[in-house]
Amino acid sequence: MSGSTLRIATRSSPLAIWQAQHVSALLVAEDPSLTIELIDTATFADKRLDLPISELGGKGAFSKEIQDIVLAGEADLAVHSAKDLQAVTPAGLVVGAFPERGDATDCLVGSTLESLEPNAMVATGSNRRRVQLGEVRPDLSFVGLRGNIATRLGKASEYAAIIMATAALQRLEITPDVVDVLPVDLMIPQVGQGALAVECRSDDAELAERLGAIDHADSRALVEAERGFLIELGGDCDLPAGAHAQLTQSGMELRAVLASPDESRVERVHLIEPDANSFQQLGTRAAVELRSRLSLQD
């Protein structure tokens, strides 16, 4: 494919464009003769900011339309935030690359956690974030907030703080006056947060091989372990849930959180797996344990 043009499907938000351009740069570094064309689109979920993600289909709300563009042959590959992907890759597609992962943490913007006044109002569109922060500070009030990074930051002054992904600020080189990065043992991130996923058609062996050159083995191992957590929960689980894996001298560690349907109970696990051959099963084990603690059916 030397000297060819690759068409990349992406959402049209500034962060999504950054992600697509980042993957473009990685591909061109491998083959400088490549020409990259971005095909950007605003998904239905991007347009309907009045609806919570749970009403838009949950997992996949931001990725399905982009995937359809690739499946229809209108683009060669798609670049997603890995956290937006369905747990199970749709038929006809394959994740050809997980480039090196960025920061997976969440952060408060507008106030530090310690500085939040009693009964302060915090904005977030994520049930996962709301439930976990509410555990630490049950006095806080929460309001929904959706939109691209600029939209959310533009409304930050209306609340005591907003919660967002740290990587988004880093990638767009935005530096709000007050940012408090929340450690992963306090705020367990979304599955795949901070990582990118690059999909192509499963029958395009030549492109899959090209994507393999920008795949980051450690990042893939971490994200696949986390995705195993979601698969075991039922793929597009709409309960507040998160999982975060990291490689340490002990092997792989995975923290996971799951709330009951009424959100009255929140359970967490922290598992360590020294055997690399069992890393992929770590997320599955975490989901089984949490589901058992909450007496949730399979």
What does this structure look like?
With 298 residues, the protein is of the alpha/beta class. The chain folds into three domains: 5-99 and 195-215, 3-Layer(aba) Sandwich (D-Maltodextrin-Binding Protein, domain 2); 106-182, Periplasmic binding protein-like II (D-Maltodextrin-Binding Protein, domain 2), CATH 3.40.190; 230-293, Double Stranded RNA Binding Domain. Helices cover 30% and strands 25% of the residues. The chain has helices at 14-30, 44-47, 64-71, 127-136, 149-154, 166-171, 205-212, 217-233, 282-293; strands at 5-11, 35-41, 77-81, 93-97, 106-109, 121-123, 141-143, 161-165, 179-182, 196-201, 241-248, 251-259, 266-273. The strands form three sheets. Strands 2-1-3-10-4 form a five-stranded mixed β-sheet, with helices on both faces. Strand 12 and strand 13 form a beta hairpin. Helix 8 (217-233) packs parallel to helix 9.
